[in-house]
Specification:
about 65% helix; mainly alpha
């Protein structure tokens, strides 16, 4: 995750923000960054949420009956 952030994940999301309602942008990583851009929480909180929500989605995919 650190590498993605260093390679411009936040900058990419900022450029895509005007199109945030597109289905393709309703993914876990973008939602957290869009929340930061909407000032729902600070950047540190967005970074903290990224791996937690990604892992949660993986669990739901691997164990859909949970």
């Amino acid at each position: 995750m650190d590498k993605m952030i260093a390679n411009g994940l936040f900058e990419e999301a900022e450029q895509l923000y005007p199109k945030q309602n597109l289905n393709a942008l309703q993914t876990v990583r973008y939602r957290e960054i869009f929340g930061y851009l909407e000032e729902q929480y600070d950047k540190e909180e967005a970074i903290r949420l990224l791996p937690w929500r990604i892992n949660r989605c993986r669990l739901m995919f691997l164990n859909p009956l949970r």
